Amino acid sequence: MILLSFGHGYSARALTKLLLPQGWRVIGTTRTSEKAEVLRSEGVEPVLWGEDLSGAIAEATHILTSAGPNADGDPVLETYGAALAPHLGDKEWVGYLSTTGVYGDHGGGWVDEETPLSPSTRRGQMRVEAEAAWQALCPAVNLFRLAGIYGPGRGPFEKVRRGTARRIIKEGQVFSRIHVEDIAQVLEASIRRPNPGAIYNMCDNDPAPPQDVIGYAAELLGVPLPEAVDFEVAEMTPMARSFYAESKKVSNTRILKELGVTLRYPDYRTGLEALLAAGE
């Protein structure tokens, strides 16, 4: 089996760790020679973005795209769409990593894969457009809508240790999240049990206010609770503030029932405990 991975980043690298021991060949695109060497050291065949991929596209049995859209649209389709088009119908599996931001704000209410898309940010709207572009080119594409990603190197512990973490308080605010190792196992499960055209939310079982996560990290470290700051007066980057424009609980029923996945980290507590035990 051969996986061609566009934008071979954090989530795709976690999947690679599951596939390579099974004898898979993984080809991954990246934008710098430094990153290419890192991928090579992990057993991935790196290709610099923009290089000819016609051979890899033709021989790949599976395709995963993790590259986010920009103002010009989906970068994979912009750069490689013409080369991909004749081959996508022959692939055993095609996956696109999207975001739960496509659902927009639901005032803390629940959403699932049947919820109408109503993004409230330009970033979310670009994701909706990218999803539609992939579906138009490849009706069999599986869409994976990811909640907030955390895992090794992406936990809250370093900020808590430095004393720079804050508990931003916004009444009713709730986020869903998922550990990167669970992203990997959901993708692997979908590859093993393909359902062409299916859409899956990727998140754990416990949507929670962001201040609770920071507070639990402090508790695990045995340090004082970080300062609570009201959202309205908190100093934040426009990007960080935009995440608070949406509040929703995301249902993961489909990945649990249809794909038969048992999450390794069903809530942020087990995830943070594992990261700390691993030396984060």
TrEMBL record:
It comes from the Bacteria. CDD domains: SDR_a4 (cd05266). Keywords: NAD. InterPro entries: NAD(P)-bd_dom_sf. This is NAD dependent epimerase/dehydratase family protein. The keyword NAD applies.
